[in-house]
Amino acid sequence: MNAADTMHLIAEVAIGFTGFAGIVGALGRERLRADDPHLWLGFWTMIEFGLATLLAALLPSVAFHTGLADSAGGAARLTSGVFTAWLVAHLVLVTPLFVRARRGANWSRGLVTLDVATFLCLLTAFVSQSANMLGRGFESAEGGLLLGLYMLLMVSGFNFALLVYLMLVSAGGTRR
Question: What domain range includes position 36?
Answer without folding.
Answer: 3-172
